[in-house]
Amino acid sequence: MDTMSNITSETTTTQPSTSKGAMQAQDQLEVSMDPPQIYVERTLALIKPDAIDKAEEIEDIILRSGFTILQKRKVHLTPEQASDFYAEHYGKMFFPSLVGYMSSGPIVAMVLARDKCIGYWRDLIGPTNTYKARETHPDSLRAIYGTDDQRNAVHGSDSYSSSEREVRFMFPDSVIEPIPAGQAARDYLARHVNPTLLGGLTELCKQKPEDPVTWLADWMIENNPNKPKIRQPIIQEPE
Ligand SMILES: Nc1ncnc2c1ncn2[C@@H]1O[C@H](COP(=O)(O)OP(=O)(O)OP(=O)(O)O)[C@@H](O)[C@H]1O
What we know:
- There is one protein chain.
- The protein is α+β, with helices and mostly antiparallel strands.
- It has two domains: 5-38 and 193-222, no CATH class; 41-170, 2-Layer Sandwich (Alpha-Beta Plaits), CATH 3.30.70.141.
- The protein has helices at 20-32, 55-64, 79-85, 95-102, 117-125, 130-136, 141-145, 160-170, 182-192, 194-207, 212-222; strands at 5-8, 37-47, 68-75, 107-114, 154-156.
- Strands 1, 2, 3, 4 and 5 form a five-stranded antiparallel sheet that branches.
- The longest helix is centred in the last third of the chain and has 14 residues, at 194-207.
- The chain binds adenosine-5'-triphosphate.
- Adenosine-5'-triphosphate binds next to strand 5.
- Residues 94, 98, 128, 149-150, 152, 155-156, 158 line the site of adenosine-5'-triphosphate.
- It holds the Pfam family NDK.
- Its main location: cytoplasm.
- It comes from Branchiostoma floridae.
- Residues 40-178 form the Nucleoside diphosphate kinase-like domain.
């Protein structure tokens, strides 16, 4: 499956570090850690008309399954839009009833993100046919929320290229930047993240706080070079 944008973010940086401590921290990181792998992938998920009343429940399962909902909108497709969305099935016996079903009521469209998102979401929704899903994948969303062989509650893109097309179809106004990969990702991180992060890691090692992750997050916010410089607000004296 052509699904993965694999971003390798190495801790090496071409940027000069701001302090000796930061350089030491960088050396230590290079010695002790494999380059972290960041996998980011998106997919289009739909909650179809037959499951719209269960949308909140399904969204809850989505979040608890490790997906992030990047975008969400409720739409009511016209028959023309439903035919366009399912154009690949044009000419099949079930096409007219599929278009009728998908335009019969509102749907929820979501852009989901996580590692291996397309595959994991397809696993979670289960087989196309609800009856089959109930037999073979009783815990899948289609087994639980689907109605029959057509009204199967949820949709998921089946490949990287269809996810890109379908996200653009449902969210035409949003600009989707291509996710940087390889050297572009390394350059981006080296320029915008690593110098600050290395400073934070150096301080973290000095302080050794009880909750290092929260401490580092606070430190990063406090020392964010992009933070707007706000002057002391003028406090109005009571009259
Ligand atoms: N044999 C069929 N009879 C009736 N409806 C069908 C049939 N096959 C597919 N459909 C409907 O058409 C939709 C698209 O079919 P497809 O083969 O692309 O399945 P899918 O990829 O599992 O589903 P989806 O694209 O909705 O995620 C199905 O979700 C289902 O609603």
